[in-house]
Amino acid sequence: MASISGSARRRAHVRAAGYWTATAAVAAELAVGGVWDIARIPYVRDLVTHLGYPSYFLVLLGTWKVLGAIALLVPRRALVKEWAYAGAFYTYTGAVVSHLTTGYAVGEVGVLAVLTALTVLSWALRPPGRMPASGSRVRGSRVRGAGFSEQGRRSAGPGPTLGRTS
Q: Mean pLDDT in the chain?
């Protein structure tokens, strides 16, 4: 019994280490890259221009990157973290497509692919406290007494029923 709990404890530590390693790498890249974007450093500005994007796009993208880095690191706010993960995933995969489509700086595709993988790994390994609750899709989306069970099937409870004559 002790070896099972020791094994489970070891897996939990490895999982936590993997989560924090991937999350730290993604958050660091988002934060540093976001600051570089906002500052429009020449390297980044030239890269974005060659990819066909206007330079003002950098300020918008950089601001969202910095906010995403913060969201990934602060405790709680699981739904905001979900948006940050989605934003990072779209940013990295969009950059991959932009590089491949234009043929410019294709050498960066490997780094972008690694960042995409780290984003997915961080998302997949996140602890339960950093996941949204299963019923937290949209606040107020559940209507009490609407006559639906948890599985979404019509129940005999109170609420409107189509085709019922009483």
A: 84
